[in-house]
Write a structure and sequence with these properties.
Elements (H helix, E strand, L loop, with lengths): L11 H96 L14 H11 L4 H57 L3 H16 L14 H11 L18 H11 L8 H4 L4 E3 L10 E4 L5 E7 L2 E4 L8 E4 L5 E6 L1
């Protein structure tokens, strides 16, 4: 016979504990749901900033390779001009010897030595002719001149060919570095695209506020170290608000070393193209307290970022993609040292 006993009811205490546990779980889930978007935005921003930093590292390497390309191109052009002039001089020497051969031909006898003009190897013939005493002094001098010129011409052509090979390799390296930069910037944009429109707008608004903060910056009353430094800083200040563009050297857009080299150029001082080379453009200054307006300021262990000290702990620089030339605290980046040009 089946039992009709009523099932045991849970105690009031147990119901209360279960209810409280469920409520806590719901609350925690709600808090996590609210925290996730904010955390996601921070994670995306951190990754994007890292990609921008890596893109800037690649940019400075790109700038260096581009300078190498320019120098190699100039060397190749100079060598090619030299070869062309040498060939012209060689043709003149042969023309002079040819006139001698023509005269002897008309007189009915061609000196065997003059037949060298018709051969392609003056060195070999000179060795034979020297032992046979078949050359007059003038003819020997002419032939020796041709042989020397041919040797120099061959050497210059070989040098030009080597430089052209170097130039080809440099152009490939330049293209590879360009692709690397574009790849990192594209990756950063893909990450930004994972955010909502509202989140992207918030990040852009923060960047816009940083770009607009220039008017509120207190530069103090630090005295520039030199008139040239003051002139360079003044030139850079006239470019506040100009966009950061990798590889750009002004006058309407800049990357970090493009801004500093352009600014000093306006002050009558030529600087190397990259931040790493500019690090050796003057006297190094270890202490931040010793910096003066117009000094160059280097950041990060590999020196891939550079700006101009503006005074009162502020640096004027071209920060990163999506940002404009602006002032920023020197403490926002890992300071390495300053350089007084």
């Amino acid at each position: 016979m089946a039992s009709h006993r009523r099932p045991k009811q849970p105690s009031r205490t147990r119901v209360t504990v279960l209810t409280a546990t469920a409520a806590a779980a719901v609350a925690l889930s709600s808090q996590a749901a609210q925290a996730d978007p904010a955390q996601k935005k921070q994670d995306v921003k951190a990754k994007v900033d890292k990609l921008y930093e890596e893109a800037e590292q690649a940019t400075e390497k790109y700038n260096g390779v581009k300078e190498d390309q320019k120098e190699l191109q100039k060397e190749v052009e100079d060598l090619q001009d030299k070869v062309a002039r040498g060939q012209g001089e060689l043709n003149q020497l042969r023309k002079g010897l040819g006139a001698v051969a023509s005269g002897q031909y008309r007189s009915g006898s061609i000196d065997p030595s003059v037949q060298l003009f018709l051969s392609g190897d003056p060195d070999t013939y000179l060795e034979k002719a020297a032992t046979l005493d078949q050359l007059s002094g003038k003819q020997a001098e002419q032939l020796k001149g041709i042989a020397d010129k041919q040797r120099r011409l061959a050497q210059e052509r070989a040098e030009a060919s080597a430089k052209i090979r170097d130039l080809t390799e440099t152009r490939k390296a330049l293209g590879d570095k360009k692709d690397e930069i574009k790849g990192k910037l594209a990756e950063a944009q893909e990450l930004l695209n994972t955010l909502t429109a509202k989140e992207r707008a918030a990040l852009q608004a923060k960047e816009d506020r940083a770009n607009r903060s220039n008017d509120r910056v207190n530069l103090g009353d630090d005295v520039p170290a030199s008139q040239r430094g003051a002139a360079a800083l003044s030139a850079a200040q006239a470019k506040i608000g100009s966009p950061y563009v990798w590889g750009a050297t002004g006058p309407s857009s800049f990357d970090c070393s493009g801004l500093t080299s352009w600014a000093y150029q306006q002050a009558g001082q030529s600087l190397p193209r990259t931040s790493q080379e500019q690090a050796n453009a003057g006297t190094r200054i270890s202490s931040q307290d010793a910096l003066k307006p117009g000094d160059l300021v280097l950041f990060y262990g590999d020196l891939h970022h550079i700006g101009l000290y503006a005074g009162n702990g502020q640096v004027l620089h071209a920060p990163k993609p999506g940002a404009a030339v602006r002032y920023e605290s020197i403490n926002n980046m890992p300071y390495m040292f300053g350089v007084r040009v």
